């Protein structure tokens, strides 16, 4: 009994193999094959065998004849009986043999549009070719179905929770987090010094950290060289025009070269007297950063007596990681949050310093900030968000719409009548659950944002099944030539 069963299995496998080779040669296997016990009679078909599928309708397929573990031969699927997707349920089914087309001089779908990758990759060719494994590219004919596109019925769409959304434009702000410190604006720092040997007669009641106004007297200074130049200036003041006027201008220029303030020179000319000391004023509004002047001290030329800084505008120097430098550009808005201040302050990127720190692999970015109430102090620690997104609205899709495999990003696009096709895209900035689409989609198209993995799985299955289709004989021969 066991021997008879084994013989029946071998006979079925042999008959299935004979059907495969007969189908490849255009011979109807039903005309010569002997009907196996318990199997339905084979129906004649003129088309060649495309592949073999499991007799129990399990998702198992084969390019060559084979049998199941219990001896059942795989069912042959011929041209016109290829698998499809039931629009009402979305399930994979074997399509019924197509009705014979009307007789015509040239079929409408005979023209080949292009050739696509047999493994379903986004690679096409206008001429026949082979992939890296030697498989022939599959021709896509006019009016034919492109690989990967699937149709999902309304019933399965509702059960699976498929959701779609129409693409539009929106402004994406992708903040880049960075930290740094507050520093003085180098252009708003001044040093008070003398240009000749001098003696500090008296220092006014100003100390380090106090604010001063431009023109406010800081100290009284006596300088023998300044007094001699002032006496010479008075001796020539009032000279008539011509050569005498040039002498007056020269005497005044000597006082200016000694850094005597213009207001003091005018006072000397008006009073006609050489003052014993010169009232030295502050050159700008600001805070006194340092005071080195002391009553009775001797000051040599170039000695720093006071250092002042205007703090109405300060800098935030931020450290940005080397990998993020390409996202930062001058003019981008920046929100700075100092730890010692009660509110955030908005500024703009003014400079990216030309250099990277070798130890930290960061570059320094300068942000100019208004500081009218002097809340920002030098060396204060700050955190900042740099708005690195596009300045205007861009085409954006929800993050959930993108199927990202690492080296390839795909979006499923609804083309109408429950039909979906995968579309490779290029991405840009990500922000607040959306991602910029730089290529591959157009405004107004509808994309899948929910349950897209299910549709993608069916698309990959269909592309794989299409890859089992034997290439066109004429195309194959031309390719090999």
TrEMBL record:
Key words of the record: Ion transport, Signal, Transport
Domain CusB-like barrel-sandwich hybrid: start-end pairs: 189-309
SUPFAM superfamilies reported in the protein's UniProt record: HlyD-like secretion proteins
GO molecular function, one term: transition metal ion binding
Domain of life where this protein originates: Bacteria
Region (Disordered): 142-163
A Gene Ontology biological process term: plasma membrane copper ion transport
Stretches assigned to the CusB-like beta-barrel domain: 314-388
Claim: tRNA-binding is one of the keywords in the record: no
Gene3D superfamilies per UniProt: 2.40.30.170, 2.40.420.20
Alphabetical list of Pfam families matching this protein: Beta-barrel_RND_2 (PF25954), BSH_CusB (PF25919), CzcB_C (PF25975)
GO CC aspect terms: membrane; outer membrane-bounded periplasmic space
Domain named CzcB-like C-terminal circularly permuted SH3-like: residues: 396-455
InterPro entries referenced in this protein's UniProt entry, alphabetically: Beta-barrel_RND_2, BSH_CusB, CzcB_C, MFP_Cation_Efflux, RND_pump_MFP
Family to which the UniProt record says this protein belongs: Belongs to the membrane fusion protein (MFP) (TC 8.A.1) family.
Protein name: Cation efflux system protein
